[in-house]
Structure prediction request, 74 residues.
Amino acid sequence: MATVRQLETKDLARVQPQGDVAATVSLVELDGEKFLQIDTYGSPDRVLVGKTSQSLRLSKAAFEQLSKLAGKHF
Prediction:
């Protein structure tokens, strides 16, 4: 698990298609601080289907930064 408090934009040298995976979003509060957590569960053909693959927990500041970037992009 990783907590993200700030994001940095980066241009990718190469962009390739990626497979789709299942994901969930959880609203978390820990020690009075609120976070948005995104968990992914990997591809359907993995050995442990349904096991969390990756987790990112965004602070309020990181979420607001992501929202602004997404608003400009989309």
Summary: The first strand starts at residue 2 and ends at 4.
